[in-house]
């Protein structure tokens, strides 16, 4: 019989028992559950609500239970609805009435909120650490290829040449923002609901500040109804995970393109590729595809909880039991994606010559030729048109801008002189973009310094104050 069965005459139906249970999912919160219970028991004893002997017996038995769960020897009873019931039933079986006193002044409503917040806080910290490790790999690859030129794209059309390092670093800034979002989610989880009891607080002289301190929360939640009803911190965590997965999916898309025969910009290592069961020649970028695909599920996890919480009245409603599956999944998935992406980038081979060969196509110097004229007094719009004509000439002849003779240039504008060849050089084009945040070698070197500085700062921030 369930621990709440006093007012019932019949046991629950086997189907509804299974349907209503969350144990298969919230098992994962066993450590947070025993941690929360120990803090509650110690506080009850300090407040004189239970005896110190009872608190000691509870603490010891909770440690034993936790150890057994970790060793895989704890016998979970499938009739227990959730991890809270599993642990408490075992406690009562082992130490009798002392165990039965643990739940004084507490409800599963504040208990589950406490466990979930402890879990979310810890997982957010672990995700922040995995985020930093991935950024480290991106920065290392940027440093290793500081002088590699690739075509930069807009609309997937050749636009202007950029440094490959510049392109990779763009992702470190995206991931740095993800780090901030994860940190914000961790902060949102960092508040103590314990002591809210079922919804209204309790008649026992609980010290909510003591459990706050014992559990490492920054403050007790000021409203007991809000304490048991709030799952915003999970939305925040899943939103952070969703955006970060979106970022990874964009990088995956590029990795997939770059490893095609058409691009040939990179080769993924064997460890991060798979073969085909029918086509012996195939080497597929499966893991980049998989990360791209998993993004859909993580975004789905966020959507699911948003819809579950929509219109829920205060305070606890059983709907909220649906919160954990998606949140745990989103955190686990993002962590795996970070690890996979870091390994994939660390082991890939870059082909600078293939990137350069592509950068030479598509008239990437066109903007700079127009700038050449504009800097010599030709209004930019007119210069734009002149270069448009030159590109058209190239298209008709099937050549590039740097194949044209000085006479060809001068036929379109008398302003062109022999030094126009300088405006056509890809390295010179890249290095001329010295604006802060631009693609010039010097600007990218500066960017690398800043990316490293932020990485070091974020590494520190993983440790809670
Ligand atoms: N298994 C529940 C959950 O995960 C625990 C809280 C249940 N509280 C209750 N009064 N039914 O949300």
Structure, explained:
This protein has about 475 residues and is mainly α. The protein folds into three domains: about 15-105, Orthogonal Bundle (Fumarase C, Chain B, domain 1); about 120-150 and about 160-195 and about 230-360, Fumarase C, Chain A, domain 2, CATH 1.20.200.10; about 365-430, Ribonucleotide Reductase Protein R1, domain 1 (Orthogonal Bundle). About 65% of the residues lie in helices and about 5% in strands. It has 20 helices and four strands. It has a two-stranded antiparallel sheet. It has a two-stranded antiparallel sheet with strand order 3-4. Strand 1 (about 150-155) and strand 2 form a beta hairpin. Helix 3 (about 30-45) crosses helix 7, helix 4 packs across helix 5 and helix 11 packs parallel to helix 13. The longest helix has about 35 residues, at about 110-145. The protein is elongated and about 100 Å long. The two termini are about 45 Å apart. The mean pLDDT is about 95. Arginine binds near residues 81, 112, 318, 320 and 321.
């Amino acid at each position: 019989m369930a621990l709440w069965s006093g007012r019932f005459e019949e046991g629950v139906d086997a189907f509804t028992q299974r349907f209503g249970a969350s144990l298969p999912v919230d098992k994962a919160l066993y450590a947070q559950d025993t941690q929360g219970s120990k803090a509650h028991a110690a506080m009850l004893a300090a407040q004189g609500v239970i005896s110190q002997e009872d608190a000691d017996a509870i603490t010891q038995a909770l440690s034993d239970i936790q150890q057994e769960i970790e060793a895989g020897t704890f016998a979970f009873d499938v009739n227990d609805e959730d991890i809270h019931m599993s642990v408490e039933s075992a406690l009562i079986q082992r130490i009798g009435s002392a165990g039965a006193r643990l739940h004084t002044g507490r409800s599963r409503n504040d208990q589950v909120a406490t466990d979930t917040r402890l879990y979310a806080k810890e997982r957010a910290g672990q995700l922040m650490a995995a985020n930093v490790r991935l950024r480290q790999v991106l920065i290392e690859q940027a440093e290793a290829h500081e002088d590699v030129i690739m075509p930069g794209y807009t609309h997937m059309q050749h636009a202007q040449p950029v440094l490959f390092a510049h392109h990779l670093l763009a992702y470190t800034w995206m991931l740095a923002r993800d780090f901030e979002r994860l940190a914000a989610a961790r902060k949102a989880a960092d508040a103590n609901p314990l002591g809210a009891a079922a919804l209204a607080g309790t008649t026992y002289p609980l010290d909510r500040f003591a459990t706050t301190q014992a559990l490492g929360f920054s403050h007790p939640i000021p409203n007991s109804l809000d304490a048991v009803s709030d799952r915003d911190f999970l939305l925040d965590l899943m939103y952070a995970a969703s955006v970060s997965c979106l970022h990874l999916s964009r990088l995956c898309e590029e990795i997939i393109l770059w490893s095609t025969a058409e691009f040939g910009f990179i080769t993924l290592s064997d460890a991060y590729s798979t073969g085909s069961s029918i086509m012996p020649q195939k080497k597929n970028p499966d893991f980049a595809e998989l990360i791209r695909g998993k993004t859909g599920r993580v975004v789905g996890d966020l959507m699911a909880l948003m819809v579950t919480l929509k219109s829920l009245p205060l305070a606890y409603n059983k709907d909220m039991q649906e919160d954990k599956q998606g949140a745990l999944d989103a955190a686990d998935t993002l962590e795996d994606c970070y690890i996979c992406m870091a390994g994939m980038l660390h082991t890939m081979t870059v082909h600078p010559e293939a990137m350069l060969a592509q950068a030479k196509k598509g008239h990437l110097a066109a903007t700079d030729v127009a700038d050449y004229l504009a800097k010599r007094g030709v209004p930019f719009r007119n210069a734009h048109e002149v270069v448009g004509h030159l590109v058209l000439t190239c298209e008709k002849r099937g050549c590039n801008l740097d194949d044209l003779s000085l006479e060809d240039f001068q036929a379109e504008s008398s302003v062109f002189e022999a030094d126009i060849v300088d405006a056509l050089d890809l390295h010179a084009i890249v290095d001329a973009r010295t604006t802060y945040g631009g693609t010039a070698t010097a600007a990218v070197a500066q960017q690398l310094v800043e990316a490293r500085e932020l990485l070091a700062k974020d590494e520190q921030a993983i440790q809670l104050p």
